[in-house]
Every structure is written in structure tokens, then in C-alpha cells.
Amino acid sequence: MDIVELQVSEEHKNERIDKFLSTSNEEWSRTQVQIWIKDGLVKVNDKAIKTNYKCQVNDKVVIEIPEPEPLDVVAEVMDLDIYYEDQDVLVVNKPKGMVVHPAPGHMNGTLVNGLMAHCKDLSGINGVLRPGIVHRIDKDTSGLLMVAKNDMAHESLVQQLVDKTVTRRYKAIVHGSIQHDHGTINAPIGRDKTDRQSMTVTNVSSKEAVTHFHVLERFDNFTFIECQLETGRTHQIRVHMKYIGFPLVGDPKYGPKKTLDINGQALHAGILGFEHPRTKEYLEFEAPLPNEFEEVLNSIKNNH
């Protein structure tokens, strides 16, 4: 059982406790939080409370998160775009709009549902809801993901991510014309205090985050870039490009209000390279830009 401690800040004064908690972690639904409260797993200042409790400044909130009950992830036959597969690993090109793994309240239509139908075995290290999942990309980001088919492969791939030896290169379109050809953004990322479902550059409860980028093509009001991740924080490229003043085109969370309406950010995980867990051979794969990304890029070029 995990124990999480939070402290209520001024901006959440008089907010219902179930709302406060559900916005404190994007993986906690309000329904789930209400169940925890009713089961006595949430205490405020060492006392059990009800779901309609109003938060006060400096309240100390302690949540005992129970071990997740096994959930049956339904195998769904999908037309997966698989780039590589053997007994240990699988590389798949995830389409834009697909969620990587199920979560309570969103149990179907994810990449994991499709993988369950495609594979007999996936690594169980990340639990029932995330079998085989070593790293994620956002729902509206397209591109390549490596999947572990057994625990040996999972541990090897995770260690490579920790050691920063995995090659992950993304194509993106950003607002503004970046004048320098290359850059490195080294700025720690943590949860945004004012919007708990967003990430931001901060020194508070944050982790190291490093993104390298170079310009592929410049336009009057946009730049086509390639980013290489050294670390893999949640929303890293989206947060970092916003931080330096060049937010991603179409990004509903971190982009400007006036952006191109393309159903999510223009971001594609195009190149993925890693050492094979068993053979130790370096493998690298490249997925071309999806059609909708190409269309946006061509539209910008034509209006340049």
C-alpha cells in the first residue's frame, strides 16, 4: 500500500476534498477518490473526513492508496502498425489519438488492449493495466514505442532509459521562428501547483529534464524541429518548448489559445533506438510522419 501526503495551499482553500485530490494526480479519478474517502483511506489532519469536506490552508492530507485489484484488460483485435517483433521485444507505431494503457474508467481502445490480442505474453512488471509498457507517449503524440514481452526485457529496457542510452527523436512544429540552429533545454519539470493535471518547469518537487533540439525548416511564424530526449518526463517536449517561448502547434494544454486546430499537438516520435536485451545488438527504427502531420506541414509551407 502506498502512502501519499499532500498539503493544501491557499489556492485550494474551501475546495471539496474529492476535487482537490482528483486534480492532484491525473491518474486519480474523482470517483476513485470518493471510494477511498468512504473506505476511510483519506485522512485530513489525522481525522477521517467525508467527500464534501472543504479544504483549509495547510491541511495535511494523507492518502493510503490500496494495491489495485486485478482488472481484466480485454484483448481487442486491432490493426497494429508493428515495426519489429521477436520473443523479447516489440516496436509499434502508435497512431495519434490512441491512449497507451487502460485506466479505471477508460478500459478499452488502448494500445495495451490491442497488444493483449496480438501477444500471448507481455512483461508483468508494470502491473495488470500496463503489461509490457516500458515508456509512454501522450495520447495525441504519434510514433514509436518499445514493448517488453518478458520481465528480463523489461528490466533491460528500463535500465537503458535510466542510463540515457535509448535514442528517442521527435519531429515537432512550434509557434514562432527559432533563430538559432541548435539548442539544449536543461530545466527541471514537476507538477504545476496551480493546475495539478499539467506539468511545468519548477524547482519544487521536480526531476531533471533535458531536451536537445535542432531546426529542420523555418517559416514566418512557425519552425519545424527535431527534438532528442535525454530524459523522459511527462509532457517533456511540450513543457520545454513552451518554457523557451516556442509552444507546439495544436497543443491544447501548453500551446497558445490561438493555434491551429489539428486535434492535438504536432509531435511525432519518429526514431527509436535501443540495445536488444538478449542479443545486445543496437536496433534503430524510423517511422515516417503520419499523413495528418504532413498535411499541416505542407499547409504552413504553402502559406509561407
UniProtKB/TrEMBL annotation:
Belongs to the pseudouridine synthase RluA family. Responsible for synthesis of pseudouridine from uracil. Pfam families: PseudoU_synth_2, S4. Transmembrane segments: none annotated. Residues 15-72 form the RNA-binding S4 domain. It comes from the Bacteria. GO terms for molecular function: isomerase activity. The keyword Phosphoprotein does not apply. Keywords: Isomerase, RNA-binding. PROSITE patterns: PSI_RLU, S4. Its EC number is 5.4.99.-. It catalyses: a uridine in RNA = a pseudouridine in RNA. It comes from Metabacillus endolithicus. This is Pseudouridine synthase.
